[in-house]
Amino acid sequence: MDVVLPKNSLTMTEAELVAWHVSEGEHVEIGTRLFTMETAKAQVDIEASAAGVVCRILRREGEVVLAGDVVAELAVDEPATTGWEDSSPVAQRKVASGAASLARELGIDLEVVRGTGTGGRVLEEDVIHAAGTVAEGALTDASPPQPTSKPADPTGEAGVLRTEPVTMSKARRSGLRLTESVGTVPVFHLAGRLDFAPVWDAMVADGASVTDVLVQGCARALRRVPIANACIQNGEVWRYLDIRVAVLTRSGDALVPLVFADPDRRALHTLHHVRRELMGHLGVTPLPVDATRSPTFVISNIGRTGVTWFSTVLFPGTALTLALGGLRSDRTADAVLTCDHRILDGVDAAEFLESVAAEIADVRPGSEVA
After folding, report:
1. Given 131, 184, 362, 367, which residue has the most CB atoms within 10 angstroms?
2. For the chain, percent helix, then strand, then coil, each to nearest 5?
3. Domain limits of the chain?
4. Spatial contact of 56 and 87, defined as CB atoms under 8 Å apart
5. Residue 45 CB: number of other CB atoms within 10 A?
């Protein structure tokens, strides 16, 4: 069985293999930590999806590996015999029946789908995520534009401006590719003001922050306006069945999207605790896999009172992103949506922003939602 470097997000094309946690000849169980990889977003631990013996390690620590490339070989343990044997890949991989049917409809090879269920079981949402990755992969594979002229003469002779190359970190290069990938998407912007005053006392009493309230409010608004929780696949609009809200968070010279699944189903104080815990991982330890999955909606909260208005680029695989300016003394802030015009029109975007404002005012401390 080949162990490959997984593509953990729509924008990921490569990652550095930071460390191996197993050796050749070692026996591993399902869930054993195999290696750590570092993408432009974060460090992620990759676990074994099957039990067996590590036969060969093909890529060394410190190497930059393309997503999907084989990094090791695993001799999978033989299953106990039961008198009959189903040798189909679906049977061996523990695939939910609904996921198998959906994969056939979408033309997705189950061998490349990463299962997130118990014991690596492939669920329907895993197939949907894989379909989005395949459809959006072409965006990130585009080569950067080639220069049409030579760099400026560094000597400064004849009045020519002097230049020197800037060493870009992996995170900065990823940001450049992100900007290039969305350059051909038709976008429009829509702005409005959000009022946090009605929920302020409850927010403070729960030990939460404006960002936590905004994450919950946006998740609720995505349920009210489902076309805002969508993407483009194969030239058609597809609506996500899950809600994953990401908050762009500064880590060194990078903006890392911390992803929260169904944050509107969590108590406000729980969401705040989880978010602070994830922030503590940044630059120190690898983030949990769930926090690095592809988001369906992205928030950028600049958190500076001197900046009242700004916009962001559209994050690949989403219908719109929200940028929140600095908080004013009256506890209001300007929000700017960057919208994919292929999915939304101005009426849809306005309805979503109005829903965000209404849901924010209605956020209250409470228990978890099942």
Report:
1. 131
2. 30, 25, 45
3. 1-79, 88-141, 183-362
4. no
5. 17
